[in-house]
Structure formats: structure tokens, C-alpha cells
Amino acid sequence: MLRTMFAFALLLAGALAAKAQAPDADGTPAPADPCTRRNFEGTAYIVCGVDPANADLRLFWKDAGGKPYRRFSGVADAVTRQGHRLLFAMNAGMYREDFTPMGLYVEDGRELIPVNREAPPKVSGPVPNFFKQSNGIFYLDETGAHIIPTADFLKQQPKTRLATQSGPMLVIAGKINPIFIPGSSDRTRRNGVGLSADGTLRFVISEGDVNFHDFASFFRDELKCPDALFLDGGNGTGLYNPALGRNDTSWHGGYGPILGLVGGKQD
To answer: Quick one: how far is CA 56 from the chain centroid?
Structure first.
């Protein structure tokens, strides 16, 4: 009986794996799910790896009617109507109350929001995260993916296909941002993007609360990303990944810019 059950389990696992790799309608293999769970120093993370040279990574903000998508499900529905599938999505940076991106936003080669050069607001408490230095920009151009401080971006003026601005930078040229305090009690759920030495992008969201220093350490020491950028935290961060059963919603009423990985055509 036990042997029969074990054999059946193996057959079922094989069938599920085959289904996950089933070809699309045009005969191309369906991409494997890019997201996995990882643990580092007592904190659980979800990491979605993307090779930008061989992936359809897009930014989404407004739908065909000119209204912000706000929810991952709206983006997934739009992608489905195009005959494709949304493999995963993540909020792509901070946004204002009307869901407008806080900083630079380039979608499909079109700059819809310029670089934010505002001075930090005068507040009695901590400086808002977006204005903590170094602020940074994640972008794609014809040479690949890049994550650099905003000051460097303004000097280089690259021609981008996709770009989003956020802050602060987590890791800069292999060094953790010196403004972060080891052991800080400022802990919340956070997400960000890192670029490894081989050009692979790592989109990360913590499943629990983590401070900036530990979050940056995960990118540098565990994922081996010499450059990484914080995207958002708390209720402003979320993940869409059907394979892991995630379709997060924001208590703010929705998200602003959204990064999504689009897969092959629907069967």
C-alpha cells in the first residue's frame, strides 16, 4: 500500500512539473515560476529572479482609460486580454495620494514623470524614505539593467526603456548605505530590487518586519548584489505571484507604479 501511494505521489509530482513547463499556444516552452522563498538571519523573504536580457519586464501605472491600475489583479487582467500571463508583479516605488509616481517614471521608452529633484521636506521627525540619501534609479536600456544613485543618473542621462526612481539606495558598489543603523528598531515589511554581478535582477519582498541594514545585508551578503534599491515599505509594498498564492492589496487603496514580469501566450 505504501509503495503504491509513493508511486502515485511521484507520478503526480511529475504531472504537475510537466504542466508547469507545458508549452504555450505558439509552441514555446512556458517559463518556470521565477519566485522562491529564502531565509536569512531569521527573516523570511520571497525572491523573484529575472534575466533582463531574456524576459519581458514591464512597468504599469495607468490602464487604457487613463486611470491608475492600483491593484495587481487589474494589471493581470490587462495582460490576459493581450493573450499573455502575468508571472509576478511588485509595487515599483513610492507614490503620491493620487497614485502618481514620486519620481522618474519611464514606461515603454516614454518619460511620463521626470526625475524628482525636490529638496527633502522640512519635518520634525525622520526624513521620508524617498528623500534619504542616496536616492536611486532602477532602469533598463539597450545594454541591460542598472541601479545607480540619482546624481549619477543625471550626469549620464541614459536613454531608458523603463525606469523608476525611489530611495534610499540599499547597496552602492558593494557597500551598504552608511546611513543605515545595525540593530535599528525601525522594522517593517520592505521590498526592493538588486542587481547581481552576472546581470540578474533580484526582486525581493520580506515576509516579516526587517530594518534597513538587515534588508541591505540580505541583498549584498546572501544574494551577492553589489547594487540594490529600496522600493517601498509597510502598507505600500506588495507582491503578486499566483504560484505562491500571493495577490496583495494595499491599505492605501492601491499601488502607484507596478513592475510586472509578463510570460508567454495563454494556452
So the answer is: 14
